[in-house]
Amino acid sequence: MLDLSSKSRRIALSALTLGLASAVFTGCTTTGPQSTASAADKRQELNAAATATLSKLYEAAPQSKQLVAQARGVLVFPAVLSASFIVGAQHGSGVLRVNGQDTGYYSITGGSIGLQIGAQSKAMVVMFMTDDALAKFRNSSGWTVGADATVAVANLGVNGNIDSYTIQQPIVGFVLNNGGLVAGVSVDGSKISPLLL
């Protein structure tokens, strides 16, 4: 059984963690003259970052270019910022492309509990391989990975190809960091919501 001082320390640590995560995200989203940029400028910046992210994906996994061409829709989050100190949080903005056209903007948020400390940025690409999967996503007002749909996160085999099981799934995801494609990561629990830009 925990004594009162132990409970108090845990509550204080949780509050500190949430406060630090909030400060990190606030600092990332409200600093400098970028906060006065128009919605059109923000869309243009996000579209350019999404194109750069796809180029990076094609370098890391050349077979992904064929998947993007076959996909009914591709959702690209160029920078998902994560911060954690026992309790973690993540946030990012992305663009949905259908038939090569930017058709909508979305935010991604999530949380986790773990022993990591620090902040990092990663990119996420979610491909809707069927019309049904894309329609369900577009018709939702908020979509949680793992609850509303399963995203098969792609891994590369020893031959450098994407595993065959993954490419047969209705929704395929890729996670990249500065080192390239990240394997064995879960995106479950991430909430994706429409973003007005």
UniProtKB/TrEMBL annotation:
Residues 109-193 form the Ysc84 actin-binding domain. The keyword Transmembrane helix does not apply. Residues 1-26 form the signal peptide. It holds the Pfam family Ysc84. Keywords: Signal. InterPro entries: TAT_signal, Ysc84_actin-binding. The keyword Signal applies. This is Ysc84 actin-binding domain-containing protein.
